[in-house]
Amino acid sequence: MRKLLSTIEKGLVAIATAALLLMMVSISFDALGRHVFNSPLRGNFELTSLYFMVILVFATLSANYAQGVHVRLDVVSNRLKRRFGKNYTRAIALVCLPIFGLFAWHVCAEAIAKFQRLETRMGAIPFPIYLSYVWVAIGAFTLALRFVLDVIAPQDPADQPGHSSTEAP
Q: Is residue 165 in a domain?
């Protein structure tokens, strides 16, 4: 199961990478059009904020957690690691699973509701907002699955690619 989830995460990271590249290109063309040709790209703000940034953040949630590269407070996490030892990963997963499980459940229900209504956001160009909710649901669901795996069979943090064995005290 862990291998399947890792494969899915790699695919999501590839999609997020493409979204980042497309976001950079669209913003560059928008700036060029706005300042050189006095004609900005219509709908670029909506495209960037409703799609590219949402994909970038939520498609990489689970992969970042799995690699140990999430932003964290080292003061707190180092104390927790000393206190829980090898059970640190399981303890973190036990705390986070109910939160992200509920979040995944809620956002999946919300995405389904938005799809049923085919909800659209009006702006420079009308954008189907329901497509954004899919990425939030995918990100929350894959992260919740990662927490489930860490509760059942946690990996040693030293085995994770983002872990450095030479941490400062």
A: no
